[in-house]
Amino acid sequence: MRKNVKLYQIAHSRTGDKFDASLISVLPYDRAHLDLLRDVLTPEYVQTHFQDIVRGHVEREETHYGFIFVLHAALDGGVVAGLRHDKHGKSLSGYMLEIDIPVSLEFEVPRDIAR
Predict the structure, then answer these.
(1) Residue 112 falls within a domain, yes or no?
(2) Does residue 84 register a pLDDT over 80?
(3) Is residue 113 part of a domain?
(4) Which end of the chain is more exposed for a tag (fewer CB within 10 A), N or C?
């Protein structure tokens, strides 16, 4: 049996933009969760989560501290050409943190960050 935790319970995120691409970093609070996130947060899984927003493909780069996702064609033309209220896509990191992460029933969210 498995249960889900929200990504925000075990990681934080920041967003940047380059033209029409959104760059979203995901950094686990505890490096012990890197393997879990590597297995779950595949480009395909993230693409499915953002399917109504991202028109292009999703790439994932791994860093020493976490991951950077590049969401292509995610900003409707970017800052100059886009008509969105959030032209830089800053709110996309919050949406990323809502992704469900399947974990074992024994998995415990650390108390100091479980809020």
Answers:
(1) no
(2) no
(3) no
(4) N
Domain annotation covers residue 97: yes
Provide the residue range defining the domain that includes 16: 2-107
Contact 13, 82 (CB under 8 A): no
State the Cα–Cα distance between residues 40 and 38, nearest whole angstrom. Answer: 6
DSSP line for the chain: -EEEEEGGGTEEEEEEEETTEEEEEEEESSGGGHHHHHHH--HHHHHHHTTTT--S-EEEEE-SSSEEEEETT-STTHHHH---SSTT-TTHHHHHTT-EEEEETT----GGG--
Domains contained in the chain, number: 1
Q: Do the domain assignments include residue 114? A: no
Residue 10 backbone phi and psi in degrees, to 5: -130, 0
For 30-65, letters b (16+ CB in 10 Å) and e give: eeebbebbeebbeeebbbebbeebbeeebebeeeee
- Chain segment 31-54, per-residue pLDDT in tens: 999 999 999 999 999 999 999 989
